[in-house]
Amino acid sequence: MTKLIAFVFTLFLTQTVVFAQNTNYTAAMEEAVAQIHQVESLEEVAAIANKFERITKVASEEWLPKYYLVYSQIMLAWQDLQNGKNKDADQHVRVATNTLAAAKHLAGENSELYVLEAYIYQVRIMRSPMMNGPRFSGSVDEALAKARKLDENNPRAYYLQGQQWLNMPSFMGGGKEKAVPQFEMAAQKFESYQPASELHPNWGKGQNQAAIDKLTK
Predict the structure, then answer these.
(1) Per-residue DSSP letters for 70-106?
(2) Which of 95, 91, 88, 87 is nearest to 71 (CA)?
(3) pTM of the model as a whole
């Protein structure tokens, strides 16, 4: 009887600790995810990236913190390139690439992760368009094709495809005429899209609409 009571107590204590950990994880993620969608400066992105990095260390078996760490690193790399800080951008790309591999190991074949893979390739192209455009453009298209195959209703796969073709010269198969239908398809997908939870990816709608407004004036 004493052993049974001890076992029940241990089980209760274990469940209580797990529940507390899950509650803390969810609260930390909800706060960080809300912040990443409202950033206004590079400094804010860096601070939020650090939050996601800390969460990945505590919740090492969860893929979503890694997803957002990759996403934040992409944002930092993009802004560094715009400010001429190429070496800083390279470091962010390295972190994003390694973290994405770890997220894929946990989540397997996942549409959102292939979207981020394409996004990383786009940053690489921006780093040196003349050299990396021919090298990585096919990789962008391939990653986005996989993203759409895994989830044909993922609007971000169409949004990034639109961006890819918009920034690709027409003689290479890109251009406005080819890009606009992708943005419009993304807009349709965004209207009916429902993320699996508040923690799952839900970005891109505003950026996609801004692209449509700019291109269809």
Answers:
(1) HHHHHHHHHHHHHTT-HHHHHHHHHHHHHHHHHHHHH
(2) 95
(3) 0.88
